[in-house]
Amino acid sequence: MAKGKKSFLLLNYFKPSIYLESYKKVNLESLKNSGIKLVMCDMDNTLIGWNERIPTTDVINFVKAVYAHNMEFVLFSNNIRSRVENFAKKAGIKNYFWDCKKPLLGKMKLVKKLMPYKENEVVLIGDQLITDVLVANRCHIKSILVSPVGRNNGESKFMQFLENFIFKRLAQKNILHEGFYNEGELGGNYEIL
Ligand SMILES: [Mg+2]
């Protein structure tokens, strides 16, 4: 019994604040009204497929929209410098971090030092429970889980297995169901944020 309870608590580390189909569904107005000042975002399979290099018009417009809402944008990727830097420059992203080793906290602490926002003023958007959502919960910031851009996401078999395993456990505990998003087409008011 005690063991069951403990694993239930651990599962909460993989629970996003919001679950959306895509970054395109993010309601920036709502985030701003919730006090968010810094939007951090994963790159691969969140903004772009792992085998693509060039940001789409939608990505460029999204980044512009974040800045237009007077929020900061940080690209926060586990990928290598050349790929992250190239993408960031083409997308008009001013602040970007590569080799972040999510879910480890090292780079997150660096961001916090460089951009000293409060925990409740930061949100991280990403497609993976075991990297993005976990790192967000470990440092007590909000998270938005989105469905991966591509079907084949370029992750190792083991990482895919782990991700699927956690999704199944979250569904069993009625915490999160894959494909059951918090919002409809127009975006809601993020009551759970
Ligand atoms: Mg990703």
From TrEMBL:
InterPro entries: HAD-like_sf (IPR036412), HAD-SF_hydro_IIIA (IPR006549), HAD_sf (IPR023214), PGP_Pase (IPR027706). GO terms for molecular function: phosphatidylglycerophosphatase activity. Gene3D superfamilies: HAD superfamily/HAD-like. This is Putative phosphatase. It comes from Spiroplasma helicoides.
